[in-house]
Inverse folding.
């Protein structure tokens, strides 16, 4: 005997919401999901009327749902926003080239302008080329750092006021766990904020409208609405550290579904003890981008790649940055440490 | 996506969505007839059957213990299997089972 929707009591329930335990029919689920994103946007005052908003779109499930819901809510509640899609091509054969085809279809389906920026044009390196040099273990570090900057560059080219990304509740909870596991207090303190303020030239404020949306619901929303998205794991991701946090989180969710929002709640309410040393925000002496060191991470990573020293951005070699900046040669020992790579 | 379809006794169509089809040689839909037996087939037995007969590689990406790996959603006739008793649900003729993987980039 089918279970009835706990909201309308008329139709057959099609899912059990992990957040609340309620059983909802399709229409009530769509409504609940969309309304919650709307409440998230309103409560956090994420947007102002007339703003130009760039939706970071990869063709994957989260960004496709984000684009769909942003367009829907913009119309339903007259946010007055001008929406655009920004996509980053990291140069990963067999993964990104396929998902970009999906973004191009999304562009037509949602009738939104699209800008694609590529690592190749911005940095002169594709992820495929980077992995060849760096190996399979630390390549996500490069990709994440480069992509952040690439999104900002794309946003500036499109004259966008704000970027929104499809990060969901599971993502944010995983990040909290990762930062606890790695002892990264500075990031732990920042990682649950729903939006970033403008941090200087070249950095566009960004926000996460799907911050409280469970990944399960995003997938089911896309499935029941028959949204067009690309669904494969990045071929380089199996060794990413985040995978451990994700596996742990999924096991926690299966025992106690509210774990995900509870972890976010813990992260939001953490305060850091007085006297704990925190990095100070400055700018990169080479490119002017936001940085807590003399050289921003992007410049350090690029320097490492271009000089055949792949480990330069991995691990703590801050002393060496000074040497690099002043163009001093490195000792043989220093070079050897920076060259060795785990495959 | 893979669809499992039963034609005689219980018939069901499993679908694998969201990348899960890669574990099944890229085949999204499977129309299947389960061998008849005295008791009705339930989802727990189905998973064992799938692992033995359809899963082509990396079983640990699909099953974990008795159930599916956390992160894989199961829909029976387009409804969350959590509403239908999960592993205890007894399959019926022409049931449509869909497996959706959520474990990929967004």
């Amino acid at each position: 005997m089918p279970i009835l929707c706990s909201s309308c009591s008329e139709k057959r329930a099609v899912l059990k919401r992990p957040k609340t335990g309620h059983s909802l029919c399709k229409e009530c689920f769509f409504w609940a999901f969309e309304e919650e994103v709307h409440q998230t946007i309103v409560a956090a005052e994420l947007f102002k009327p007339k703003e130009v908003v760039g939706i970071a779109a990869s063709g994957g499930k989260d960004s496709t749902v984000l684009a769909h819901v942003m367009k829907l809510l913009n119309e339903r509640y007259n946010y007055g926003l001008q929406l655009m899609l920004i996509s980053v091509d990291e140069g990963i054969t067999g993964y990104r080239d396929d998902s970009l085809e999906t973004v191009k279809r999304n562009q037509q389906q949602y009738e939104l302008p699209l800008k694609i920026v590529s690592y190749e044009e911005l940095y002169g390196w594709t992820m495929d080329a980077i992995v060849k040099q760096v190996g399979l273990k630390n390549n996500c570090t490069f990709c994440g750092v480069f992509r952040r900057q690439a999104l900002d560059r794309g946003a500036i080219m499109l004259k966008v006021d704000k970027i929104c990304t499809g990060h969901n509740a599971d993502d944010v909870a995983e990040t909290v766990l990762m930062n606890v596991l790695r002892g990264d207090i500075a990031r732990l303190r920042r990682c649950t904020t729903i939006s970033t303020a403008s941090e200087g030239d070249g950095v566009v404020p960004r926000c996460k409208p799907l911050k409280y949306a469970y990944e399960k619901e995003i997938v089911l929303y896309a499935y029941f609405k028959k949204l067009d998205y690309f669904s494969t794991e990045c071929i380089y991701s199996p060794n990413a550290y985040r995978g451990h946090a994700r596996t742990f989180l999924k096991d926690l969710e299966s025992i106690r579904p509210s774990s995900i929002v509870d972890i976010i709640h813990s992260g939001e309410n953490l305060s850091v003890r007085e006297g704990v040393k925190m990095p100070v925000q400055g700018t990169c002496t080479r490119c002017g981008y936001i940085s807590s060191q003399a050289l921003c991470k992007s410049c350090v990573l690029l320097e490492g790649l271009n000089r055949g020293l792949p480990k330069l951005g991995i691990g703590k070699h801050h002393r060496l940055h000074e040497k690099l900046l002043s163009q001093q040669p490195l000792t043989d020992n220093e070079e050897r440490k920076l060259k060795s790579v785990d495959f | 996506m893979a669809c499992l379809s039963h034609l005689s006794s219980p018939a069901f169509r499993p679908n694998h969505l969201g990348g899960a089809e890669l574990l099944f040689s890229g085949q999204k839909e499977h129309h299947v007839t389960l061998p008849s037996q005295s008791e009705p087939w339930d989802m727990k037995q189905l998973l064992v059957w799938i692992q033995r007969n359809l899963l082509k590689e990396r079983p640990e990406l699909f099953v974990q213990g008795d159930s599916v790996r956390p992160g894989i959603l199961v829909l029976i006739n387009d409804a969350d299997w959590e509403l239908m008793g999960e592993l205890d649900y007894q399959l019926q003729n022409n049931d449509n089972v869909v497996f959706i993987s959520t474990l990929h980039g967004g």
In short: The interface with chain B takes residues 2-3, 12-16, 23, 58, 60-63, 166-168, 171, 215-216, 218-220, 223-224, 231-234, 237, 246-247, 250-251, 253-254 of chain A (CB under 8 Å).
